[in-house]
Amino acid sequence: MADRVRATLTTAALGAAAVLATGAPSAAGPPPTVWAHPGAHPTRDHYNPGETALTADTAGALRHRWSVPRASAVCANPAAPLVAADRLFTASGYRVSAHDARTGALRWRTPEAGKRRISLAAVVGNALLTQWTHCRSGRDYLTALDVRTGRVRYSRELPEVMHSTVVDKGVLLGEYWDAAAARYAVGARRVADGSLLWSRSPGAFNGLPVSAAGRVQVSTTTSRVVDIATGRKLWDTRAGCLVPDGASPDGAFFYFTCTDGRTRRLDAGTGAVLATFPDRDEPFAFATDGARLYHRGFGPDRLYAVDADTGAEVWSVPGVDVTDITVAGGVVYGVRDEDPLIAVRAATGRPVPLAGPPVGLREEPVVAGGRLYGVTGSAVVMYAP
C-alpha cells in the first residue's frame, strides 16, 4: 500500500495551538527551570539549561526532603514524572497526581476510572498531555488536563494505541500498529485539540523519537527526516545512520551512532554530515548541554564527555557504570542502579561530593527549580540542599 499522508493544518488550528500554549515563556527570556518532556525536551538532550540554583557549589548539600508513593498496578507501570508550573506530575495506580514541586503536597488527583495504564507525554503551556489505555479493551485516549486544577480540557479516543510519542511545535507524533495494513504507522495530532493532522503507513521510529526543532526521523519504505507538522520529507538519512541518539538543545544538529560504531553530527535542516567523531567504544546513554556530549562507555566502564562539535574527548571518569545521565547547573548526574548517584562537574569531570546521595534510582533524575527528583521502585523522592 502506498504511503498515505493527510494534512489538515488550518489557520484556525494554528491559532488554537497558540491559545493552548499561552503562558509559555518568551524565547527572549531566560530558559524555564522545568522538565516538561521525557528526556527534558523533544531533543531528548537530558539537559535543563535554566537550572541556576542547584549547581556544583550547592549540590553537595543535597538531602532527602520528601517522597510521594509510586505504586505499580495490574497492567499499569508508573509513568516517568514531569515538572512544570510549580507542579510535580506523576501517574501510577490508574490515576494522575499533581504535587506541589516544593513541598510535595497533593494539589489534585484524577479519579480512578477503571484499570488503565497512563503515560505523561508532555506539559505544553497550561496543559498536561496524557495517554490513557484501557487494560482489557485496549481503547486508547489522548487527554489534556489543566495543570492547575486537573480539569479535563479535552479527551479524544484514538483508533489505535499510540506508542513512543514526541511533542514539539504544537504537535504530538506517535507510533502505532496499523491493524488494517498489519504494519506500524505514525500519526501526528494537534496538541490544542487532539485532532489528526497527518498519518503515514508504513511508518516507525528507530528507537525513541527525537525532534530537532520540529524535524523527526521516521522509517517508512526508507529512513527519512520529516517535518512534524506536515509529514513532508525533508531529507533521507545516510546508509547505516538510522537511530538518532538525540539532538542539540537548540535543535540545530542530530547525533547519530551509525552501524560502524561511529557517532556523526548532522545538520538537522539538511542532513549534511558535519563531523564524524573518533572511533571509540560505542557510547551508551546520551546527554548534551550543547558544548559537550556525555556518555557511558563499555570496556572498561566509564563516564566520559566529548566535544559536541568534533567528538574530541574532554574528560573521562573510569570505573563508573551508569544507566542514565542528566545535566543541569553545570553538573552531570549519573544513575548507577543500586549504587549512590554520582555527580561530576560538566566542564572537567571533577567529582562533586554528595553528602546524602540518592540510592537505587531507576530512571534519570529530574533537576528543576533547585531540586532533584528521583524515581525508586516505590516512590518519587525529592532532594534539595
From TrEMBL:
Keyword field: Signal
Domain of life: Bacteria
Positions of the Pyrrolo-quinoline quinone repeat domain: 64-236, 260-350
Keyword match Signal: yes
Signal peptide limits: 1-27
Pfam family, one: PQQ_2
SMART domains: PQQ
InterPro entries in the record: PQQ_b-propeller_rpt (IPR018391), PQQ_rpt_dom (IPR002372), Quinoprotein_ADH-like_sf (IPR011047), WD40/YVTN_repeat-like_dom_sf (IPR015943)
Family annotation (SUPFAM superfamilies): Quinoprotein alcohol dehydrogenase-like
UniProt protein name: Pyrrolo-quinoline quinone repeat domain-containing protein
Species classification: Bacteria, Bacillati, Actinomycetota, Actinomycetes, Micromonosporales
